[in-house]
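[audit] Reproducing an earlier prediction to check determinism. Same input, same settings, fresh worker. If the C-alpha cells differ from the archived copy the diff job will pick it up downstream; this log only records the rerun itself.
[audit] input (490 residues):
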Amino acid sequence: MPSGPLTWRRRILQALVVPPCDLEGHQVDISACGGIALFPTDASDSEQLFRNADLALYEAKAAGPVYKFYTEDMGARAQARHELEHDLRSALLNGEFTLEYQPLVSLKDDGICCCEALLRWHHPQHGWISPAVFIPLAESSGFIVPIGQWVLREACMQAASWPAKISVAVNLSVAQFKSADLVPSVTRALAHSGLAPERLELEVTESILLDDSHGALRKMRQLRNLGAKIALDDFGTGYSSLAYLQTFSFDKIKIDRCFVSGLSQGKPTSRAIMRAVAELGASLGIATTAEGVETPEQLDIVRAEGCTEVQGYLFSPPKSAEEIASLVASEPSLPRRENKPSLLAVVDGERSPVVLASEHEERRLQALQSYGILDTSPEESFDRITRLARLALNAPMAMISLVDRDRQWFKSKQGVEVDETPRSFSFCTYTIRKDSPLVVGDATQDPRFRNSPLVTGAQRARICRRSSVHTRGLQHRRTLRERCETPRDH
C-alpha cells in the first residue's frame, strides 16, 4: 500500500531536516529526495523494482526536495533520454554542433566589446535541440568536457578574425573546470588560433567555486597568468558570497537577467541590487554586465546605475558565425535617444516604439518630482477617495496613480494587487500623449496593454476610457478614467 512507503519516506526526510550546518566557512543546507516504486504494481522482480525506483528518484531530484512515485511514462522518458545521449556522443564527430554569438556592448562608447559563444545542436532527425535539453544531458553523462573543449577551440578560431578590440566569451562547465586538462586545453586553443590571450573571457558560475578540492583558486591564477580574463556569470542566482570576490580575482561580474527583467516588472529591489553590484564592481575595478536587456527603459536604468556593459535582444539576438563577423566589421552602436523619453513594448516578439513628446513630458516629470509624493506611505485621505470612487462607479478597481519616468506608481488603490506597473504597459502613458480621449475596447486583446499586471491580474481590467486634463503653467497632465471587467454594449 502507498501509505507504507510514504510513511517511511516521511520519517527519512524528517530525520534529515536539520538546521544549516557550517562546513569550512560555508553554510550548507541538507535536504532529501525520494523515488518510490511498489511491488508488484510497478515491477515483477527486485531488479526491475530498484530500477523503477531509481527513475522516480531521478525525476524527484529534477523537481526539487520532493518524492515521486514511479509511473509508466517515466520509463518512456528515460528511454528517450538514453537515445538522445547516444546521439549526443556522435554529434561531435558528425559535425552537428555549431556556435552562435551574442554581442556585449560597452556603455562607455556604445560599441561591441565582446561576443559570447553559445552552443547549438542540429539533430539530423529532430532538428534543433534546445540547449536546456542537451546541456544537462551532456553534463550528467560527462560528455560536456570534450564538447566544451571543442567550443573553446572553435570560438578562439572564429574570434581571431574579428577586430582586435572585440573579445570572445566562453562558458566553462563545472566538469570542464574540474578537468585536469583545463589549463592545457586553453593554452592549446590560444596557440592554435593565434588569438591574443587578453581577448579570451572565460565565464564561470558560483557553483564552481564552492568546492576547492579541484584547485579552483590555483587554476584561476594559472588562467589569468596566461592572459585570459575571468568573468563571474549569473551573479545573484547562487550563493553570491562577497568572499568570492575577495578570494578570487575576477575581471567582470555578469548580473543575471532576472534582475534586469525585474526592472520592467516594477520591482524596486531589482534596481537596488543593480545599483549595489555596479557600485561594488566600480570600487573593485571590475566590469559589470547587465544580461537580458530588452527595452530602452532597462537600458536607461542600467546605464544610470553604473553598469559598464549590456547584453540582450535590444541590441542583438544570438547570430551565426558568419552574421556576427559581418556585424562586428560594421561597427554598430547602441541607438542614442537624444534624451527623449521613449518606450519599447515587446509584444509576441515584436517591438513597438512609443515615443513621448519630450518638452511637455520633461516638465511633467519635473513637476512630479517637486511634489515629493513618490514612494510615500499610504494615507487615509487618499484611500477614502479611491474607496468612494469604487463604490460610486461600481468598479472592480480604483486607484490614484503617478506616472514616473519608468513606472506607474499607485499612491492609493482598491482592488489592485500590485504597487506599481512598468510604464511600457501603462494606460496613463498612452493617455498623456493624446489630446483626445483614449478608449480601449478590450485590453486583453490590445497588444499595448494585454501584458499589463492590471489586465493579467485577478481583477482583469478590460474596458478603459481615459481623458487628459491639462493644468495651466506646468503643462502637467492628469487622467480621468473608468474601468470595468467585462465589455459593455455602450
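[audit] rerun output stored. Observation attached for the diff report: The domain at 358-484 is CATH 3.30.450.40 (Beta-Lactamase).
[audit] end
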